[in-house]
Amino acid sequence: MRHIGTVVGTGVLLLVISACGGAQNAGTGAGGGQELPTATSSSEVPPNTPPGEVPPDGKPVTKLDANALAPDQPRTVWTQGDGKTVGVVAQEGGCGKASASVLEQNASTVKIELLETLPLTKQMCTMDIRFPPLTVQLSEPLGERTVVLTSRQEQK
């Protein structure tokens, strides 16, 4: 009889934990339903594109220099439409938000920076890692140029 309180307490705790998990996912539906952040662009990447995969209307970029990225960062890059839109898969986690920008473009290379912006103030954040697809606009189609990826984090 003296263990009945422990058993009942454990049951209540499990009920509360499962209810919290259900409430967290209540608005997402079966397909996820989340909108993924994108860089400012007129072209959107379908939000249901799995991380690391090129969207159905994209063409994979084969000339890629990702040596400046950490080994665990994604290296998926593609062009869309007329080749002036370049898509990349970024990485963000917790309260961080990813963005992409073109640092430089010349006759042989296009340098794209992946930026994860973290909040300045300490706050509770999830411990998840997300891989949002982002797009940037070039002044000319990518063509045979090499895409050079860099990344950094900053606090704002």
Question: What does this protein look like?
Answer:
The termini are far apart. The chain is built from 1 helix and 10 strands, in the order αββββββββββ. With 156 residues, it is an alpha+beta fold. The strands form 3 sheets. Strands 1-3-4-9 form a 4-stranded antiparallel β-sheet, with no helix packed on it. The protein has a 4-stranded mixed β-sheet with strand order 2-10-7-6, with no helix packed on it.
Strand and helix layout:
Blueprint: H1 4-24, E1 58-60, E2 64-65, E3 77-80, E4 85-89, E5 92-93, E6 97-105, E7 109-118, E8 129-130, E9 133-137, E10 146-155
Parallel strand pairs: 2-10, 7-10
Antiparallel strand pairs: 1-3, 3-4, 4-9, 5-8, 6-7
Uncertain residue ranges? 12-44
Give the helices and strands as they follow along the chain.
HEEEEEEEEEE
Helix amount? 10-25%
Average pLDDT rating: 78
Strand percentage: 25-35%
Q: State the distance separating the first and last CA atoms.
A: 56 Å
SS elements, strand count: 10
Strand order, largest beta sheet: 1-3-4-9
Number of H/I helices: 1
Task: Produce a short descriptive summary.
By secondary structure, the chain is of the alpha+beta class. It has one helix and ten strands; from the N terminus they run αββββββββββ.
